[in-house]
Amino acid sequence: MTRPCPGPDYNFRPPRIRPPAGACCTQAHVFGPACRFPYSEGRGYTPPDAGIETYLALLDMLGLDRGVIVHGSAHGSDNRASLDGIATAPDRLRGIAVVDPDIADAGLEKLDAGGMRGIRLSTMLKGAVGSDQLMPMASRIRDLGWHIVLHVNDSGEIAALEDLLRNLPVPVVIDHLGRVRGGQGVEYPGFQALLRLMRETDHVWGKVASWYRLSDLGPPYDDMTPIARAMIEARTDRVIWGTNWPHPILWDYPMPNDTDLFDQFMDWAGDDATRRQILVDNPASLYGFDA
Length: 291
What we know:
Blueprint: E1 24-28, H1 52-62, E2 66-70, H2 80-87, E3 93-97, H3 105-113, E4 116-122, H4 134-141, E5 147-151, H5 156-160, H6 162-166, E6 172-174, H7 189-200, E7 204-208, H8 225-234, E8 239-241, H9 258-269, H10 272-287
């Protein structure tokens, strides 16, 4: 039996600084309801049901007009729960799919019609398709205008993949700050490889998300501040941000409050122009919200 995950903090409240119009959370999941969308037998965790209505309520409270549903591995490669969520607000939502490498072109096209704009590869999640599929899947999705979200287990993997990532023919988003830990710091070789890729290419992006699970100090996660700011300063026009609601696989850390996390990001971004670039302009370009 897989380990059940705790639920999120439902204390939704407005942030200290209201985001600009068109702001987007680029990292969230919807799970279930299991009675309609069963969880995968090969999953590594069991989340509580976390429906699209609650996620939209969170977006409304934070003042965010747009969101991206990253398909959760608890559902395997059955993307129906995420597609159903997108369909509730198709002008407002986009998605990132999880697919099997042998998916037919017609299957990819169906996902595209449902609002998916990329695929997620992971070396961390049980049963996931890993980084060995970076180049093969890049060639499969290139004509769709999609991108890859790469979720590594340790940022050291980015250093090992640096040459491959540099030569990918599609955009690639490195998830969760490259998963560099607070105790490893900005100078950690994997994180430095990520910063080089962001500075020296136009197709490698970084995502500021999930720092609460990477902090070695715990709340208020001060050890993650220099890491987040280093990513933002490296290439502001290649950074996106997300809540990671409802914060699955959070067994050994305190459950964060989404407003507290958003307030912290807004402090890290520092000024209105940077906030607009990361929250509005970058996701609009990457996920096709203006299309």
